[in-house]
């Protein structure tokens, strides 16, 4: 897989050279290019942003450097193509990133990431990109970061660990929270040695070596945890009933 990242802060992406993703790059499973958007500016100040039309606070990313960067990275005459690259623009107003999208992106041969900053991208950046390459605007959660770099790190890590060969034991991918076929439950609690620590004991069910009972215990724990922390993940029939508050009178 080839990954290119467009950013105003290339150093922000340096953690990708560490750990699992770093090893995937070293072994050649993943090829990474990080590009400074200012490479595609032509004025003395290397300007990438300007004030919003219609007024309002903050600055907006101008479209020209993005257009030129994509021209260079994609080459001329590209059109959106199922076998071609896919562009992910990171923005808090994007579609929510989740494990299903991570799995989809892990199947691609080439991904490009665009990291926004300031008040966001001029809307024509995505509109024009869609004419050249499959494009998604993606958010990593309902909160606002200072820019898309940390979001890109999260997405790239979630995607690269699903690329075959990156994780030694693929079983660890199917057991974890949000894994497909997991009934969308959170992961059950896990324990290791010592059996007793500061007055806290490992649940006795895990010592009996009875595989079916351990599996049933884990399933129940995962359900209880999901009910408590993420009821929105439960199947509709198990969703807690919300009783509308009666209005005055
Ligand atoms: N840029 C700023 N906040 C973001 C978010 N939540 N997701 C993706 N990109 C962002």
UniProtKB/TrEMBL annotation:
Cell compartments where the protein resides: Cytoplasm
Keyword Electron transport applies: no
Enzyme class, broadest EC rank: transferase
Source domain of life: Bacteria
Binding site for S-adenosyl-L-methionine: 116, 140-145
Catalysis: reaction(s): guanosine(37) in tRNA + S-adenosyl-L-methionine = N(1)-methylguanosine(37) in tRNA + S-adenosyl-L-homocysteine + H(+)
Subcellular location, principal: cytoplasm
GO biological process: tRNA N1-guanine methylation
Alphabetically ordered keywords of this record: Cytoplasm, Methyltransferase, S-adenosyl-L-methionine, Transferase, tRNA processing
GO cellular component, one term: cytosol
Enzyme Commission number, as recorded: 2.1.1.228
One MF term in the entry's GO annotations: tRNA (guanine(37)-N1)-methyltransferase activity
Job description of the protein: Specifically methylates guanosine-37 in various tRNAs.
Family: Belongs to the RNA methyltransferase TrmD family.
Protein name: tRNA (guanine-N(1)-)-methyltransferase
Source organism per UniProt: Microlunatus kandeliicorticis
């Amino acid at each position: 897989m080839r990954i290119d990242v467009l950013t105003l802060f290339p150093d922000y992406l340096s953690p990708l050279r560490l750990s699992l993703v770093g090893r995937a790059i070293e072994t050649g499973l993943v090829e990474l290019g990080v590009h400074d958007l200012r490479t595609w500016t032509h004025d003395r100040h290397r300007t990438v942003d300007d004030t919003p039309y219609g007024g309002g606070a903050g600055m907006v990313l101008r479209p020209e450097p993005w257009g030129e960067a994509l021209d260079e990275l994609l080459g001329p005459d590209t059109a959106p193509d199922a076998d071609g690259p896919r562009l992910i623009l990171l923005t808090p107003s994007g579609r929510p990133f989740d494990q299903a999208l991570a799995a989809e992106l892990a199947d691609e041969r080439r991904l490009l990431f665009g990291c926004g900053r300031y008040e966001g991208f001029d809307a024509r950046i995505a509109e024009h990109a869609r004419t050249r390459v499959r494009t998604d605007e993606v958010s990593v959660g309902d909160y606002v970061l200072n820019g898309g770099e940390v979001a890109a790190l999260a997405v790239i890590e979630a995607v690269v660990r699903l690329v075959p060969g990156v994780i030694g034991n693929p079983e660890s991918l199917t057991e974890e929270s949000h894994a497909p076929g997991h009934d969308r439950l959170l992961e059950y609690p896990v324990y290791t040695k010592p059996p007793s620590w500061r007055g806290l004991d490992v649940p006795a069910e895990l010592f009996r070596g009875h595989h079916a009972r351990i599996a049933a215990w884990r399933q129940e724990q995962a359900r209880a945890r999901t009910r408590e922390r993420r009821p929105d993940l439960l199947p509709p029939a198990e969703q807690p009933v919300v009783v509308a508050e009666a209005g005055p009178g």
